[in-house]
Amino acid sequence: xxxxxxxxxxSLLSLxxxxxxAEAKVDIIQLPKPKATATIPxxxxxxKRRSVRNFTTKSLDLNQISLLLWxxxxxxxxxxxxxxxxxxxxxxxxxxxxxADGIWHYLVQQxxxxxxxxxxxxxxxxxxxxxxxSVISAPMDIVFVADYRRTAVxxxxxxxxxxxxxxxxxxxxxxxxxxxxxxxAVTIGAxxxxxxxxxxxxxxxxxxxxxxxxxxxx
Length: 218
Description:
This protein is an alpha+beta fold. The protein has a single domain (26-215), classed as NADH Oxidase. It has helices at 4-24, 42-48, 62-73, 122-128, 133-137, 149-155, 159-180, 193-199, and strands spanning 28-30, 93-99, 102-107, 112-118, 140-146, 184-188, 207-215. A 7-stranded antiparallel beta sheet has the order 1-4-3-2-5-7-6, with helices on both faces. A hairpin with a 4-residue loop joins strand 3 and strand 4. Helix 2 (42-48) crosses helix 7 (159-180), helix 3 packs antiparallel against helix 7 and helix 6 packs across helix 7. The longest helix is centred in the last third of the chain and has 22 residues, at 159-180. The protein is globular.
């Protein structure tokens, strides 16, 4: 027969493990399968693409978010190749999303989003981006992050150049996808790297490279 002390100990132990599970619980959203919903031809999207800095408060739906992230780094081939070309198919980029409900990390292989930080961090991101208002007003800010080691392992110092080329490819995909969806977008390169890295809780080997604010044009 178990003693009262033993029961108390087992109860406390159970509560301890439950608390660990609660802390370890990760909020992951499965994104819908990307569906082509282009409102205009691609050549028209290229012609009409312009930087948009003023947005309405209207939120983006999950299908729009799914398409934008897929355009950035989504898998487009059964071999695992992605939407944007990458030197040696080494894929040094990570993609984060900053929205009113928190900061999310795009999980490429699952086409899902994992919450990193809860709560609206757009004001903090805007502060890091020299207080640019588009970062706050846009319902969604996409942040491209680089891990240079992935490319350097094959290409050495020149690999850094390839990473910068790749983020340009990925960013243009997002800008054109936004245009095809009837949305506006603006690219932002001026920001405090360390502040953005800290906000996204990036590991030391990764750094933010580029921000794109996306939303409905005001």
